[in-house]
Amino acid sequence: MNVLDPREFGRLTAEGRPCGHYDFSLYHGLRFDCACGETHDFKPWMEIVNELPLFRFIVACPDGVHLTVVKARWNRDENLRELVAEMGTALPHRRAAFMEHQQGVVGRRSDPGSEE
Ligand SMILES: [Zn+2]
């Protein structure tokens, strides 16, 4: 995965918008590579900083430092569900300002199952 400078990461994710459009419960339990170097199980209640076009979103690592852009792939016909990490960054000391910039500090997410 590309781990980018925060400024470059911010530029590449500037088209983000607050959460609320994607159904993150579809991806519950899928593993994804995180910018911190570990692999995490995705939980719908993890902090999503922003949504990006083409079913990509920015998920915050539980370590409070790393952000990762993940592309969600879901194809019912092929029984395919996966999360592909595209790039990430580390935001030591600068996370608060970045989050404010992205306006997704506590993005609204759909509760698992609430719309089923
Ligand atoms: Zn992580």
Could you name the key traits of this structure?
single chain, mainly beta, five-stranded mixed beta sheet, two-stranded antiparallel sheet, 2 helices, 34% strand, binds zinc ion
How would you describe this structure to a colleague?
The protein has 116 residues and is mostly beta strands. It has one domain. Helix content is 13%, strand content 34%. The chain has 2 helices and 7 strands; from the N terminus they run βαββββββα. A 5-stranded mixed β-sheet has the order 1-7-6-5-4. It has a two-stranded antiparallel ribbon with strand order 2-3. A hairpin with a 5-residue loop joins strand 5 and strand 6. It is globular, with a radius of gyration of 13 Å. The termini are far apart. Bound molecules: zinc ion. The site of zinc ion has 7 residues, from loops.
Neighbour order of strands in the largest sheet: 1-7-6-5-4
- Structural class category: mainly beta
Question: What ligand species are in this complex?
Answer: zinc ion
**Low-pLDDT segments, ≥5 res:** 104-111
Order of helices and strands: EHEEEEEEH
In total, how many beta strands?
7
In round numbers, the mean pLDDT is: 84
User: What is the helix tally?
Assistant: 2
- Approximate helicity band: 10-25%
Give Rg in angstroms: 13 Å
Major beta sheet summary: 5 strands, mixed
Distance between the termini: 34 Å
